[in-house]
Model the fold of this input.
Amino acid sequence: MKAIHAIRTPGGLSLRVEVRAAIVVVLLAVVALAAAVVLIGSGDYPMAPADVIRTLLGSGTTAQEFIVNDLRLPRALVGLLVGAALGVGGAVFQSISRNPLGSPDVIGFGQGASVGALAVIVLFHGGATAVAGGAIVGGLATGVAVYMLAWKRGVHGYRLVLVGIGAAAMLTACNSYLLTKANLVDATRAVVWMTGSLDGRDWSQVWPLLIACVVLMPLVLAYGRNLRMLEMGDDAAYALGVRVERTRLVLMLAAVLLTAVATAAAGPIAFVALSAPQLARRLTRSPGANLLPSAFMGAALLVVADWIAQRAFGDRQLPVGVVTGVLGGCYLLWLLVSERKAGRI
Done:
């Protein structure tokens, strides 16, 4: 039996809180923040977690404040925000498609953002801001195209996934073609961007990402109840008063924007959007999209992966996208085997 508490607000609203899910959210938030503190303290000038916290509170030395606030804190914040955005985006698409493979990096949205960014790099030789804008436009255009191609008296799960996988294959081919058209400098820059990295991130990436998360995540959470009803099927959701297509369209648009903005900030980070919602659901053991647990799980996964990329291979630092790709690939294989044993694929 699950422990569920009912809370009545002064305005007369009644809220149901699942105790296990709430505990998981708190623990994941603590893990994500602790991992961020450890990440900030790592590097050529190592700092103890206590020194990092003291510096963040304004009591560090001048050197510590420069290293923490100007060099390392933006990287950690980008990691937390990108992980949270990808976790929520993945949770929305997996819930809408009712398929564990319904992840933005599997059904083409990450690849669409990559096409937009590579087009700016290769064809227009644009700067960092233009590349970020190209990634957002590419992700949005892909989302619209996949939605329209998957539409047939509504958008259903397996059709969305199949159309998305086809779109991902074509967009991957476009990325390869763009690389063949690039000169050596642009090709090197494009490959580095496509790997996915938090290297060199500063406050110019933090603020747009923070604004997008502050605007879009509450919107997604506001539709959380309707999203949970959608998992029961369109007919059941209609019977319960949910405006199905409007809800689906708003949530998909928000999830595509979150994925595109995250990709614009850090490049295509593989498998976080796929694995974070699944791991969060296994921890909470709750039905539904588990939006908040997915956000904190994504944040924790990406920050931990970045620490591994920096410290686990000696002096040789790896882009975080390499680590998430390896770990996520192993998770995907395990997921496919589990789904096959359960008879779902």
The chain has one domain: 17-341.
